Amino acid sequence: MSFCDTIWQDVAPLRRAILEQPFLAELASGSLPAESFRHYMVQDSLYLAEYSRVLAIAAARAPTAAGRLEFSDGAKVAVQVEEALHQAFFAQFGVTPEMALASEATPVCLGYTSYLLSLAATRSYEELIAGILPCFWVYWEVGCAIKPRAASPNPYAAWIDTYAAPSFGEATGRVRALVDEAAAAATPATREAMAAAFRKATRYEWMFWDSAYHRADWPI
Fold this sequence. Notes:
- This protein is mostly helical.
- The protein has a single domain, classed as Heme oxygenase-like (Heme Oxygenase, Chain A).
- Helices cover about 80% and strands about 0% of the residues.
- The protein has helices spanning about 5-10, 10-20, 20-30, 35-60, 65-80, 80-90, 95-100, 105-120, 125-145, 155-165, 165-185, 190-215.
- The longest helix has 28 residues, at about 35-60.
- The model has no long low-confidence stretch (mean pLDDT about 95).
């Protein structure tokens, strides 16, 4: 069994918890309060600004041409395609550019991006890309799980379609292949560090949606 298959099974309880999130259940039914989705989109735009930097660093550190191409393309997608989706939702849900610019990252958003940036700055390439992978793979699983049961019409249909799209699944598969390739050549200690990075990033994925659902902010 590959490294990715093993760690994916290992985080099965986390994945179930994510799929059971009320944020995602209500998003699928179309009943999610607009305020919660607006909170999510603003925070996700702040997250993606930093995630694109993390992907660019991964591209610069990648030992193979395939890795450099994949992560540089991923950084471009994070900036262009996802930002275009956000702009459409910003207009739909009444978020002005000024409101987005004035927004501050919540503790969960800041914690997640800071963790990924710390991997990029202080840890191995192998740990870094293991920490990057959940943002691809978890979203792909969520998109595929939600789409068959999503209400129609649904104000969140464009979001669901983005992450259930075959092209997103293909991108996820390519990043998984890079992580498996790195793990196959790594020491046992490095593989354990990779698994820890993957688990921690997956926890942050759960926390991000939970924070959005409750519209959490700095408590003081």
